[in-house]
Amino acid sequence: MFYDTAAKRMSALNDHATLLQTQISTGKKIQSPSDDAVLSQQIAQFDQQDAAAAVYQTNITLASSQLEQTDGTLSSIATQVQRAIELTTQAANGTQSDSTRSIIGNELSSIVTSLTGLANTKDVRGQPLFGTASGTPAVTANSDGSFSYAATDVSAIPIAQGQSVQANESASRVFMTGSTDLLSVISNLAKALQGGGDVSSTVSSALDSLNAGNDQISAVRASVGARAARVDLQQTLLTNANTDRAALRSKDEDVDVTSAIADLQKTMTVLSATQASFTKLSQLSLFDYLK
Question: Facing residues of 148 across strands?
């Protein structure tokens, strides 16, 4: 009976010492699910949450980049439209000649080309920034002087559980004000100025459309800015959640190395004393038996 009890005690102490040594070397409380089923399940949930957070982080980075690029491109578009307004205002001046209006028309034609190029800007993935996921160009200049716009199926990017954000815009929303196409307005105005003659009514109508188009671009930029603020907020929330989850995980999963070392030293001391006592008592018992 004595030998069985002593052997079991030494085996238990040895197992505990081995566990402590493994915990100290790995820094983790459990080494397999069987060590603690409840804690293992909690850690598995942390793993799932970490994986989901990694996906959302990638999406947030993409959305932030696209929104920044969208705003920057819209800024360039607004600059071109504002220049078109300045040129149209100049063209409305009665002192202009057909020759000077033609020069203004040439610059307006160049602005149309620039705006079309900006509308077909590619995003970080090589897709049209203002187009569709299928890669269709956002704006196409037709041979008759009109313009065609890609379908407005702008996709949203998931940035959190149950939350997504539209990270770009459709070209039609940027350049269309009601039924008025801003690119066609500038293009037709350029042709009218290049053609000479009385273009006062065309210039006046175009100026109204350009001002309305400029307001529309400002509204789109404000919308993009609001979405960018949402993404920034979600980034902050995600960062905080990651930090909190890491702290909870560390509390549940990580071993207190200092305490574990102290426990190991104590266990080894007890184990050594138990082994010594067992050896001594065994020798005495054998001596008594022989005597």
Answer: 140
Model's pTM, two decimal places? 0.77
The answer to whether residue 288 scores a pLDDT higher than 60 is no
CA 233 to chain centre: 11
Tokens of 178: 């009601």
Q: How are beta strands 147-149 and 139-141 bridged, if at all?
A: antiparallel
Measured CA angle at 208 (ends 206, 213), to 5 deg: 90
The residue whose two tokens read 């034609």 is: 109
Helix pair 200-253, 182-195: axis angle to 10 deg:
150
How far apart, in Å, are the Cα atoms of 156 and each of 36, 62, 63, 95, 129?
41, 11, 9, 51, 13
Least confident of 69-78, 119-128, 230-239, 266-275: 266-275
Structure tokens at 266: 């104590």
pLDDT one-digit tens code per residue, 73-93: 999 999 999 999 999 999 999
CA distance 188 to 171: 19
- 203 has pLDDT over 50: yes
The 3-class SS string of the chain reads CHHHHHHHHHHHHHHHHHHHHHHHHHCECCCCHHHCHHHHHHHHHHHHHHHHHHHHHHHHHHHHHHHHHHHHHHHHHHHHHHHHHHHHHHHCCCCCCHHHHHHHHHHHHHHHHHHHHHHCCECCCCCECCCCCCCCCCEEECCCCCEEECCCCCCEEEEECCEEEECCCCHHHHHEECCEEHHHHHHHHHHHHHHCCCCHHHHHHHHHHHHHHHHHHHHHHHHHHHHHHHHHHHHHHHHHHHHHHHHHHHHHHECCHHHHHHHHHHHHHHHHHHHHHHHHHHHHHHHHHHC
Q: Which two tokens stand for residue 122?
A: 């590619």
